[in-house]
Amino acid sequence: MAIPLFENNKPLLFTAAVIFIIVSLFIIVVAFLLYQSQKKDLKSAAEQQINAIADLKVREIESWRKERIDDARFIFTNQIFAYGVGRYLAGSLSPGGKEDIFSLLKAMRESHHHKNILLLDKDKKVRWSAEPPRMDFSEIHAPVIGEALATKSIILSDFYIDKKTNDVHLTISIPLLFSRNGRESILGVVIIVIDPELRLYPAVKTWPVPGSSGEALIIYREGNEVVYLNQLRNAVNRPMLMRRSIDERELPAVKAVMGRRGIIRGVDYRGETIIASIRPIPDSNWYLIAKIDEKEIYAPMAQRFWIITFFVIAIIIICGAVITHIWRYQEAKYYRRRMEQEDKSKALYARSLIEASLDPLVTINVDGKIMDVNSSTELVTGLTRTQLIGSDFSEHFTQPEKAKEGYQLVFKKGAVRDYPLAIRSSSGQVTEVLYNASVYKDASGAPQGVFAAARDVTELRRTQQELKKAHDDLELRVRERTKQLQTANKALEAEIREKKEAEKLLQLRTLLLEATNKELESFDYSISHDLRAPLRAIDGYSRMILRDQPDRLDNEGKRRLELIRTNTQIMGKLIDNLLSFSRLVRLELTKSSLNMEDLINDVWHELQIINPGRNMFISIKEIPAGWGDRILVKQVYSNLLSNAVKYTRTKSEALIEAGGYTDGDENIYYVKDNGVGFDMEYYDKLFGVFQRLHSSDDYEGTGVGLAIVQRIIHRHGGRVWAESKVDEGAIFYFTLQTEEKLI
Amino acid sequence: MTTYPDLVLVEDNHDDIEMIKDALKDTGEKISTLVFTDGAEAAQFFFQPDSRFRTNNMQPPKLILLDLKIPKINGLELLKRFKSDDKTRHIPVVIFTSSNAKSDRMTCYQSGANSYLIKPLDADIFSEYIGEIIKYWLVMNENVS
Description:
The complex is a heterodimer. Chain A contains 16 helices and 24 strands.
C-alpha cells in the first residue's frame, strides 16, 4: 500500500504559508488599484465639476457684459436722445427737453444701480453728472473716451482702480452720434460708471456646489504682471491690488495669460496645490479661472484609505483563518493516514510476535470457544488453525473440567498465573503446561475474552528432578567437606593466634632494639668523650713531668711513668674496640653477592704486609659465593685470619686453609690453622667480649676479635662455632644464608 | 693602645686547657691567649653590644680554638653565630674536639669551620698538633687585618 507520505508535516506547513503570503499580496495589490481608481474617479469628477463651473461663470460674465452693452446700445441708437443732447450741448434745449434727457439717464442709473452716469461733450468736458464727479475724471478715462470717439462704437473699459479710495469700477463709453442728410456728426459721449461689486463680483464669487476651497477668479495681464480683478476668497487685498509676476509659472493665473486652457494643475497664490479650469472670456482680455484645492478633492480618500485598509486586513485575516483551517485539516488527515499505517504495521508486528512465540497462545471468548491461535498451538495440539478456532478450549486438555475452571477463574479475577494443565494432542500425546492468562477488554471496558499463554514444562520438570538429585548429592558432599574444613579451620585459627602473638612480640623487640640503639649512641659518645678525656690528661701530665722535671725522678720513676703512658694508650685502644663492637649492633647491613675468595685474598695480602718474615701459607679450597655485607664479612675474615696467623706464631710454618660448602639453605665456611689451638673446656668463653684464652703477654689483643665475628654472623642470621685441641690447631666455622632463600 | 688576644680558646676541660697552654709554650712564640670555659662567656665577649670586643674597636683574634662539648651554649651553636656575624665571620675557627662522629664533622664544615681536629690521646701527638695549628694559623696564615 503506497500512500505518499512526507517524512514530516513541514512541507504542508510551508505550502500553507506560501499560499497565505500570495493571497495576502494579491489582496493588497487589488486594494491599491482600487484606491488608485477611486482617486482617479474623484479627480475626473472634480475636473468635470470645475469645468462646468468655469463654463457657467464665463456665461454669467458674458451675459453681464452683454446686458451692459445692450443697455448702452439703447442710448447709442436713440437718435431722439442724441438730438436732445446735441441741443443741450449747444445750449438750445428747453428745460422740458433737459428734463427728458436727464430723467432717462437717471432712470437708467437707478434701475441698474450704476455708480454714476456722466455726459461729456466731444472735447471730453463733463457737461452733466448724476453724482459729483472727480475733478480728474476726464483725464483718468481719456483713453477709453478717446477710443469710443475715434471708433464711434461702445467701449466697455477694463477695471479701473481709484487710487485714493481703492474703489474698483468699470466704465462704458457710449459715443453720441447724430445723422442728418447722410452726414454723421459726433456730439459727445455718455459714460456709465459700473460698480462690479454690485453684480459682477457676486456672480463670480458664488460657488454653486458645497466646498471650502472652490473659487473663481477673473484676471488679466498688465505688462509683466497678472492682475487679480475680483475680490479673492483667501486674500485680504482689495480687488486689483493683488498682482503677481508672470515669472511665477506655477500660478494658474500666469498659466492662463500664457495661453493654457482647460484643466491644469498648479500652485495658487496661497501656495496650495490646486486643480483649475481656465477659460478666456470672449470679447475681452479677461480670463476666468475656476479652481479647487487638490486636498479637498482627495479629502474623501483619507476615509476611503482607512476603509480599504480595514477591509484588506479583514480579508487577510479571513484568508489566514481559512488557510489555517485547511492546513489543520490537511495535517489531521496526514496524521490520520500515518497513524493508520502505523496501526497496520503495529498489528502486523503484534501478529508476528504472537507467531514467533514458542509458547502456544490462544484467545478464548466468554463462552470458552477458541477465537485465535498461533502456530505453536497448532503444533502442540496436532490440529490446524481452522480446526481449532471455534472449538471448546477445555476439550484439548486431559482434565477438561479443570481447564474450564481455569478460564472461568480468569474472567472472575482478571488474570491467573502458572495454572497447571496438560494438553492432549490429536495423536494422544500429553504435554504438561503452565498457563498464564488475562482478560482483554474492549474500549468500554467490557471483557471480550481471555488471552492465554501456555508454557511447556515437560523439559522443566525433568531438569528439576535432575537438579534435585544433583542437589541432594551436593548437600552430602558439602556436609563432609564442611566437617573437614571445620577441623582445618580450628588448626588455622590456632596458628593465626600464635602468629599474632609472635608479631606482637616482634614489635615489642623492635621497639626495645630501637631504644637500645639510641642509648648505645649516647653511650658511644660518652665513651669517646668522657672516657678518653681523663686518659688524655694522664698521658699529658705524665709527659709534662718527664719533660719538665726529669732531674727529680730516678730511672725507676721515669720507667714507671713511661709504663703509665703505655697503659693509657692500651686503654685507648680498648675503648676504640669496644666502640666499634657496639657500633656493629646498629650498623645497617648492605647485602650483596660476595666473592669469598677475593675477600680472603685481600685480607691475606694485608696480613702478609703486617707480618713480614713469617713463613705462612694459605690454601683456598672450593668456596661458594656469600650473601652479606661486604665490609662486615671482610672483617670476619680479617679477624679469623689474623687470629690464625697470631696463634701459629710458634710454628715453623703456618698452614692455613679456608673453604666452604652449601648445606641446604645455608652456606658453611671455615678457616683452619695448625696453631696452638685451645682447650675445648673453655669453649663457652671463646666468643665473649674481652674474654681471652691465652695470656696477653703471649698473644697481644683485647679479646674482642671473636666477639665481633660472632656479632657480625648473628646479624646475618648465621651461626658461628669452633673445634680445637690444644696444640693441634683450630677450625672456625660460620654460616651465611644462601641468596636464593633471602630473595 | 688596645690590647687584644692572638688566640681565643673555648674549652671547659681544665686538663685540656693546661695541656694546650703547655703546648703553646713549647712553640716558642709569644701568644696572648683568652680562655672561656663555657659558651655563654664567649658569646658575651663577642656578641654583647657593650662588650670590650665591640666597644673598643678591638682588633679581632687571629684564631678561635673551639671545643664542641662545652656548657651552656654548645660549640656548634657558637660556631654558627661566629660565622653569621659581620664582626666575627672572617676569624678562622678550628674545631678541637674528642668527637670523631661523622655527623659532627659534616655539620661543622657546613657551618663554616675552617678546620676540624680530633684531640689525640697521645700527649706527644697532642702537643705536636697544637704546635702545627699555631704555626699555620698564627704564623704562616695572613689574616684580614
